[in-house]
Amino acid sequence: MEVPINDFDDIRPLNNDEVKDAIESLIANEDFERAFRYIKPDVDWKQFCETMRSFKTKEDFKNKLAYEAVMMVAGKTTFSLTISGRSRLPKDKKPCTFISNHRDIVLDASFLNVMLYDVGYGMTQVAIGNNLLIRPWIETLVRLNNSFIVKRNVPVRQMLEVSKVLSAYIRHTITETKESIWIAQREGRAKDSDDRTQGSILKMLNMSGDKDILSNLMELNIFPVAISYEFDPCDFLKAKEFQQKRDDPDFVKSQRDDLLSMETGILNNKGRVHFTLTSPINDQLAKLDPNMEKNELIAAIASIIDKEIYKHYRFYPCNYVAYDMLTGTRRFSEHYGLKDKKQFEDYLQGQLDKIVLPNKDEAFLRTKILEMYTNPLKNFLANQE
User: Fold this and answer.
1) Which residues form the Phospholipid/glycerol acyltransferase domain (predicted)?
2) Which run of H or E residues covers position 131?
């Protein structure tokens, strides 16, 4: 499927010719300055502006300022940030489509990129929904930082065309510009941590190919990544949203809610964070029957991605404690001590106390948070059977 390159202009990252103007617009934006000072209160703004103006390319910006900012967040809000499976990366740095489960709006791709950079593979282009581009300066910043835009909530009659352009852009990036990309396995986060690859994502990726489904997806070199956070700073916000949707089926989050989720996820404690690079799935795709019915084939491909993620999670005492609390058993008691159990119980109550609702259903909210910490373990166990 041919899509004119000009059609990518409103979704692609900025190019190097646009860097200077983008930086000047950021420096002049009071909201950007306020946001940066919030993260780094002691910043020397004049010196920071001079540093910004020294960046002539996207690579300069990403490898210096963006890298430093992400590592600063990691240093302040994680106990550790680690990655395994580096030996599975293509030795020739062949571009990959990294598909992962999704925990944090901003940091999943950011953490992955700094760790890929550290091991010499290089940073990816990152898919980001336009629903998060709440301020013009945010769009400028993410496109300067090599993100491309996924248009959400478009009218049904436009959805097909939007998906075709996005698919063509991703294939162009992998096959022509030879850059890897990161995209979440589903639209938005799995708020209950029951991670499932959406078939619609795979159908979108297939649209731009001119061969059969398996060949089209194999050309994109899909590489699942399993993300494990010890603590999710937004767990209480997700639980709150579950109750709001339970009580009002028409409830829709506001832009303020999205901003709060981004801020909470970036600035608060995540404990240990681990990324596992699984393996590209082309060998597994090659074993599937290309004559399967389309939806059945898409489901089989999604299942391959899911199983790679499930078997590569990393678990912490809180996951085992949550499982036993939720099920009323002591199945995993050998994986935690009394101190671990007490610490998680205190953490859980602290998160529940942050939820403000007029008809707060604490039992329901408690269950939803416990499910968030239990579901990855349940999926891992089911994958072993």
Assistant:
1) 82-227
2) none
